[in-house]
């Protein structure tokens, strides 16, 4: 399982760089603009320069409206700025067809410029609270749009977590659907260390965190701490070892 960490700017990205041995992807966002809030192009560029070259930089394009042209142009902006993982939160899409239209525009805009870039179609575990496409629709939306991964995060950061909205069995189904479609499955949403056993067992490819590696577990007032990134990674590794040692159920 890969570890994606979301700093809110250059200062926290430098904290990620200090913990670079313990993480896989640095994900630039602007949390005060929403769960997948987009940061400025110059911040993406500066962070690309600050983290080791072998660590991919991801950028969120925002909790986007159903405006395919606007979103495609924003996604290209993130790519030109140096991000190679482009994450789109399909906040304003109420039907799978709308979401596919948005993601097709993103895939074309991004891959015309950078064919090896990785496009992530993200929905929300708490979609029922905001009226957007349902979580289990994401793998098919990602597949039909040519995206590379399907993701879930939570839209409303009020202390509720991924499993409060999409229980472990349903997250397992999400991962299965993504894998059947040839995609990676990414899961996030106030994930804590105690969730790692389940996330490992169901075969999650990428886990995204912020709050869990911030001081005091607080994604807003806390800052990312390299020590907490290392501890989170150690826990991931422990679960990976235990899972590998567990005989597969027949
Ligand atoms: O992409 C991952 C998100 O930044 C998760 O943030 P969170 O762990 O604070 O919910």
TrEMBL record:
Active-site residue list: 29, 87
Matches recorded under InterPro entries: 4HFCP_synth
Protein purpose: Catalyzes the formation of 4-(hydroxymethyl)-2-furancarboxaldehyde phosphate (4-HFC-P) from two molecules of glyceraldehyde-3-P (GA-3-P).
Enzyme nomenclature, EC number: 4.2.3.153
Reaction catalysis annotation: 2 D-glyceraldehyde 3-phosphate = 4-(hydroxymethyl)-2-furancarboxaldehyde phosphate + phosphate + 2 H2O
Protein name: (5-formylfuran-3-yl)methyl phosphate synthase
GO MF annotations, alphabetized: lyase activity
Organism: Streptomyces filamentosus NRRL 15998
Alphabetized UniProt keyword annotations: Lyase, Schiff base
NCBIfam families tied to this protein: PRK02227.1-1 (NF002573)
